[in-house]
Specification:
By secondary structure, this protein is of the alpha/beta class. It has helices at about 1-10, 25-55, 100-115, 130-140, 155-160, 190-200, and strands at about 70, 75-80, 85-95, 120-125, 150-155, 170-175, 180-185. The protein starts with a helix and ends with a helix.
């Protein structure tokens, strides 16, 4: 009789109705899912905590950008004070930095898209001087010709003022030249777009 019952139920999905006890295997998987969910939640909180800590090490909101003269890609001079009245997207990067290289196409694309709305993109190279212009020119010519109009060479004084200790480091300055947002580390196109919209709306 037992053998017949086993034969009858073989191959059918297990049913767990009201008042019945789940199989031990199912209970085990439930516990695993709970543990994984909890760990993901903790990881998310940890990530947010790290991001907040990194933001705390950058120039604080309201800080006025220094009036430091920088050389542009085409040999002219530019100071951030020259850009008052515009929202500035200031990216510290270098040709040797893989995350910078990955993020740069998004920055260029969005800079063009939002230029008519008052956004100015400044790609502040932290390649080592005095050879930085050579490294950047090679990078621009061979990989990103559209980057040329945005490049400046950021001196140590500028990097120190913005507390740049890792690349990429991105700042947004309002129309009065004050910091309104900052990020250390590369961002996705969607995240960059959200920050641009927020900066332009301030």
């Amino acid at each position: 009789m037992t053998e017949q019952r086993n034969a009858d139920t073989e191959g059918r999905p297990e049913q767990v109705g009201e008042g019945s006890t789940p199989a031990p295997e199912r209970q085990g998987w439930s516990k695993v899912l709970l543990v994984v969910t909890a760990l993901l939640g903790l990881a998310g909180l940890g990530y947010l905590g790290v991001q907040e800590a990194l933001r705390g090490r950058l120039a604080s909101d309201g800080t006025t950008a220094p009036s430091v003269s920088m050389q542009t890609y085409d040999g002219k001079k530019l100071s951030l004070s020259d850009l008052r009245g515009k929202v500035v997207m200031l990216d510290f990067w270098a040709t040797w930095c893989p995350p910078c290289q990955a993020e740069m196409p998004y920055l260029i694309k969005l800079a063009k898209e939002y230029e008519s709305k008052g956004l100015v993109f400044v790609a502040a190279s932290r390649d080592e001087m005095p050879d930085a212009p050579l490294f950047v020119e090679e990078f621009v010519v061979s990989r990103m010709p559209d980057l040329a109009p945005y490049v400046v060479y950021a001196p140590d004084e500028m990097a120190a003022a913005f507390q740049v200790t890792a690349l990429p480091t991105l700042y947004f300055l309002d129309r009065e030249g004050r910091v309104v947002d900052a990020q250390r580390g590369a961002l996705s196109e969607a995240a960059l777009r959200a920050r641009i919209e927020r900066a332009l709306g301030q």
